[in-house]
Amino acid sequence: MRSIDMLRRICPLVLALLLGVFATVVQAECTGCLCPGNPCKLCSLPPTKDTSPAKDEAAACLKIREKVPPVSKNTEPNEHYASLNNAMRECVKNGGDVIVNSRRNKEFPSKHYCKPYVASTP
């Protein structure tokens, strides 16, 4: 009887350990546009003064930088939101989609990003 009791106690622990390892592996894989390396060539909205354009920046992002003046951390809220609205309009006007970033991190610190249209190659 003792071996059965011991087996009943060990089985849930082994199952929990396996599920924990599986969950860690799933979290480590990143899918979507907000992954390291910026696979979708996102640009922050509105453009900021302290970031320089990427060397392979999409045409839509370049047009946004041309038409919308960059903002800084010290920009007044009314100016910031006006710039954000203009940047969103330019993003959509140039064929991009606006993405809201709910999980900010060091690589993607902005709340809004423009995902430019990138034609897929067959």
Helix content: 40-55%
Average the pLDDT over all residues and give the rounded result: 83
Derived from helix and strand composition plus strand pairing, the structural class reads mainly alpha
Q: Note the gap between the termini.
A: 64 Å
Tell me the series of helices and strands, N- to C-terminal.
HEHHEE
User: Strands of the biggest beta sheet: in what spatial order?
Assistant: 1-3-2
Main beta-sheet annotation: 3 strands, antiparallel
Our Rg estimate from Cα atoms comes to 23 Å
What can you tell me about this protein's structure?
This protein is mostly helical and 122 residues long. It contains three helices and three strands; from the N terminus they run αβααββ. The chain has a three-stranded antiparallel sheet with strand order 1-3-2, with helices on one face. The longest helix has 27 residues.
Keywords:
122 residues; mainly alpha; 3-stranded antiparallel beta sheet; 3 helices; 3 strands; 9% strand; elongated
Question: Short description, anyone?
Answer:
With 122 residues, this protein is mostly helical.
Helix-strand blueprint:
Elements: H1 2-28, E1 43-45, H2 59-67, H3 77-93, E2 97-100, E3 112-115
Antiparallel strand pairs: 1-3, 2-3
Helix pairs in contact: 2-3
